[in-house]
Write a sequence for this structure.
């Protein structure tokens, strides 16, 4: 089957210099070779950091390399061979990185899985991948894995990072981390070096299972070259636009997600950076201040939460702070529109002295750039952080592309309603029907054991993304919507739901939203009210705070209706949300209504609320 004609093409920015970092990544045959090169260069310099007993402690490059190689040889000692799959079930921690590298150093294929997976999810991945071993961190995470192993009966070995106290291990042999990471480190390094010399860029490094907004998760075959191509392109942006010096990353997103796996783990290795592991969402703000990262990769939902928190903090500081905030946003909006005004310079100077330093300090004071990916970022959110003096970049890609295809960058001109030009050595084209297509070494080698879906997705070397968009005059990608998510109303008009949902959730009253309207006369919405706003509303109106009970009050619904109406003022006639209903609870990973990368699962939500949505028509 031939790809459709592609009249538009984006030329990636060509790096003018041969930087040593890019040379190292370009020359590397695999990720293990690159890592060992860095470990030899850096030796006792800090590499991986974690919080322990209230203090941040680090492991050096040499210590990590020793553990990687010892674990790799121990895996070989269990009888694992080239191409065998090893699943990895763990929260973000230094051992995650060590295990992932060790699996590849053993010549095996890493299969990261989400810690939120159910027994059924694990069973699907174990069965589909044919994993022979599982590395798991805690007793809690082991429980559903054991059930999945019992279902599939294919796992021979389980390695526990913590002491899991396994008295009985039905169907598999249990091994503890300590025994797997001790021995002659020099001999282990020599063995790994010899083995890695035979691993090529074309060889599969990992199977990343897409979290799936629809259907069962599919295993994406990411080869070493795909990830190396990705980190070279990302490193090129850092080098040219910001310079490289003592880079430090704070790892927060799940490492089982392709975005964090590539940009949060292997990009720091390429940049000779340090990686510190966050303690979780509750402590993320304090972790950022303590670690002082230079680069953070985050999903849009987190930026929306941080924006709301910052605005509320400023609102409590009085009229002067709010005056500065309002002017900062106005100045940023003018700049975003390409209409900066000279008369704003004095006010911008005051904001730079009185407001922005306080905001930067909350982000550690060393932040070069925050990179948003995994889902579309509302331009207003990006502009807000720019107004606060923080550089915000939006990237674009898919697990199937390693995952990064493009990224905003200052050198190309930041424009928050685009996702930037293609990365170095990446081609982007737009098909006749508006679908974004991608070609290059970053494109996956297909879906594991799914030739039919591979053939549908990759045609004539071009990855068909399923996203709709176009290229602007500077070759930057502008994404309209997901091809399969597009609403087509009863008159044949196309409506992009993600745009509307993004605008709705910028309102302080609305935490989450999903809109519908396919084959219908108008758009309707399903809304989750913001809990903090609802509490304040209840207190102001003399009502008891019970979110479910509040939703039955006409006055409460009227207040949320006002937020919807404010959004509608900026929408076209066909996009306006005419009616809405409340959801019973927040969309979450636990109720399977969100993916681990914080995208809503439309089919799950529609199935649950079909009757409620139908009543709106």
């Amino acid at each position: 089957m031939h790809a459709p004609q592609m009249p538009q093409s984006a030329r990636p920015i060509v790096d003018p210099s041969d930087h040593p970092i890019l040379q190292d990544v370009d020359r590397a045959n695999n990720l293990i070779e690159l890592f060992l090169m860095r470990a030899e260069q850096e030796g006792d310099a800090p590499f991986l950091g974690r919080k322990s007993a209230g203090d941040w402690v680090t492991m050096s490059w040499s210590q990590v390399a020793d553990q990687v190689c010892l674990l790799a040889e121990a895996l070989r000692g269990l009888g694992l061979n080239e191409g065998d799959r090893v699943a990895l079930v763990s929260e973000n921690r230094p051992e995650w990185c060590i295990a992932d590298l060790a699996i590849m150093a053993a010549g095996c294929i890493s299969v990261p899985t989400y810690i939120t997976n159910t027994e059924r999810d694990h069973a699907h991945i174990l069965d589909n991948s044919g994993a022979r071993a599982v590395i798991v961190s805690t007793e809690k995470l082991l429980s559903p894995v054991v059930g999945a192993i019992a279902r599939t009966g294919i796992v021979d070995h389980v390695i526990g990072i913590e002491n899991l106290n396994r008295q009985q291990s039905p169907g598999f042999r249990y091994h503890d981390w300590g025994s797997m990471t001790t021995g002659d480190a020099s001999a282990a390094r020599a063995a790994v070096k010899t083995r890695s010399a035979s691993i090529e860029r074309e060889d599969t490094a990992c199977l990343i299972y897409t979290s799936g907004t629809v259907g069962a998760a599919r295993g994406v075959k990411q080869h070493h070259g795909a990830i190396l191509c990705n980190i070279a392109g990302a490193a090129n942006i850092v080098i040219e636009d910001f310079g490289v010096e003592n880079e430090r990353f704070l790892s927060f997103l799940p490492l089982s997600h392709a975005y964090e796996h590539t940009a949060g783990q292997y990009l720091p290795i390429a940049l000779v950076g340090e990686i510190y592991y966050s303690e979780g969402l509750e402590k993320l703000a304090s972790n950022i201040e303590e670690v002082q990262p230079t680069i953070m990769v985050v999903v849009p939902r987190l930026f929306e939460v941080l924006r709301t928190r910052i605005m509320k903090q400023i609102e409590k500081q009085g009229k002067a702070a709010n005056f500065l905030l309002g002017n900062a946003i106005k100045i940023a909006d003018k700049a975003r529109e390409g209409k900066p005004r000279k008369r704003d310079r004095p006010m911008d100077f005051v904001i730079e002295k009185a407001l922005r330093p306080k905001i930067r300090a909350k982000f550690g004071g060393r932040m070069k750039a925050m990179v948003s990916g995994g889902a579309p970022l509302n331009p207003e959110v990006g502009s807000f952080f720019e107004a606060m003096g923080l550089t915000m970049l939006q990237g674009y890609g898919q697990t199937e592309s390693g995952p990064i295809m493009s990224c905003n960058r200052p050198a190309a001109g930041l424009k928050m309603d685009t996702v930037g030009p293609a990365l170095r050595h990446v081609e982007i084209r737009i098909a006749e029907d508006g679908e974004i297509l991608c070609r290059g070494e970053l494109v996956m080698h297909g879906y594991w054991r799914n030739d039919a879906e591979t053939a549908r997705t990759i045609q004539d070397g071009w990855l068909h993304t399923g996203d709709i968009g176009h290229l602007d005059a500077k070759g930057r990608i502008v994404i309209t919507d997901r091809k399969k998510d597009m609403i087509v109303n009863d008159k044949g008009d196309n409506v992009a739901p993600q745009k509307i949902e993004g605008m709705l959730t910028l309102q302080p009253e609305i935490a989450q939203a999903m809109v519908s309207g396919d084959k219908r006369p108008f758009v309707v919405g399903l809304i989750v009210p913001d809990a903090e706003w609802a509490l304040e509303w209840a207190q102001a109106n003399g009502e008891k705070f019970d979110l479910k009970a509040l939703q039955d009050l006409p006055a409460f619904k009227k207040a949320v209706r006002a937020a919807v109406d404010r959004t509608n003022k900026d929408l076209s006639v066909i996009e306006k949300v005419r009616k809405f209903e409340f959801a019973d609870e927040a969309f979450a990973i636990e109720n399977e209504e969100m993916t681990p990368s914080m995208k809503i699962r439309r089919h799950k939500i529609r199935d649950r609320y079909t009757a409620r949505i139908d009543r709106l028509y």
Observations:
- The chain has 22 helices and 26 strands.
- The mean pLDDT is 90.
- Residues 247 and 550 are 48 Å apart (CA to CA).
- The radius of gyration is 25 Å.
